[in-house]
Amino acid sequence: MIEDSYDDIEPAFEELAVAVESENPKREVLRERVIQRCLPLADHIARRYSGRGEAFDDLQQVARVGLIQAVDRFDISRGAPFLSFAVPTIMGEVRHHFRDHTWAVRVPRRTKEIQLHLAGTVETLAQRFGRMPRAREVADELEVDVLDVTRALIAANAYQSSPLDAMINDDGENMSPAASLGDTDPGYNLVEQQIAVRPHLIQLPRRERELLIMRFFESKTQKQIADHMGISQMHVSRILTKTLNHLREEVLQD
């Protein structure tokens, strides 16, 4: 069964950390168990980058290498969730592969130099903050202008171009890019949304945060929420609309 959120994987890392520190012979078994459980996450990220001129098998292998690096580098003692560290680490490894093999357009040297450090910096900041860093935070860490970081992020998409109307599969048959993409488990969209929204959700006032939890995590109706909070249903609707708009603006701004 594919896990949707990996919210309960941190105890496995705690067990692994203890085994490594004590040189328990079971540490390799525990490490392999964590990697195997997270393989679908690496495969999902690889699938997102398919159709850009690289074979999916190659991208899958690169993404899985990134996953292994994430598992080996993750420090459970920092208190950050594994996903906030693993996702940018895996994506960085895949982008590193594209950067080294498939630049399609001319990119200024300084932009390339900054782009070289992006993946590692994002990985470090994600571990430090427990969330995806903002462009301004990346720029401060690299001691460069935020505009240079933005250009480097855009340059990360300067991959090798490929025709949209013709691809060849492993059997030598023509196929469309859409046909090469498998169905994505819908739970992974929730993973990405969770990573993006979590830091902003934590910063909400207590009442707004509790209201969102009751509505979207406890599946309570607006009337049930209104009765629980002692306010009108119309007031609940207004708060929901205002809070969701605020979260959307914050995420889009990031």
The largest sheet, given as strand count, sense and whether it forms a barrel, is: 2 strands, antiparallel
Which word captures the global form? globular
Q: Determine the number of helices (DSSP H or I, runs of at least 4 residues).
A: 11
Tell me the Rg in angstroms.
21 Å
Number of DSSP-assigned strands: 2
Uncertain parts: 159-188
Distance separating the two termini: 33 Å
Strand order of the largest sheet: 1-2
Percent of residues in beta strands: under 5%
User: What is the quaternary state of this protein?
Assistant: single chain
Helix-strand makeup class: mainly alpha
Estimate percent helicity.
Answer: 55-70%
Name the average pLDDT: 76
Order of helices and strands: HHHHHHHEEHHHH
Provide key terms for this protein.
single chain; 254 residues; mainly alpha; two-stranded antiparallel sheet; 11 helices; 66% helix; globular
What does the secondary structure layout of this molecule look like, with pairings?
Elements lengths: L9 H12 L5 H22 L7 H18 L8 H20 L7 H21 L5 H8 L3 H10 L11 E2 L5 E2 L11 H16 L3 H12 L4 H8 L3 H21 L1
Antiparallel strand pairs: 1-2
Helix pairs in contact: 1-2, 2-3, 2-4, 3-4, 4-5, 5-6, 5-7, 6-7, 8-11, 10-11
Polypeptide structure, described:
By secondary structure, the chain is an all-alpha fold. Helices cover about 65% and strands about 0% of the residues. The chain has 11 helices and 2 strands, in the order αααααααββαααα. It has helices at about 10-20, 25-50, 55-75, 80-100, 110-130, 135-140, 145-155, 185-200, 205-215, 220-230, 235-254, and strands at about 165-170, 175. The chain has a two-stranded antiparallel ribbon with strand order 1-2. Strand 1 and strand 2 (about 175) form a beta hairpin. Helix 4 (about 80-100) runs antiparallel to helix 5. The chain starts with 9 loop residues before the first helix and ends with a helix.
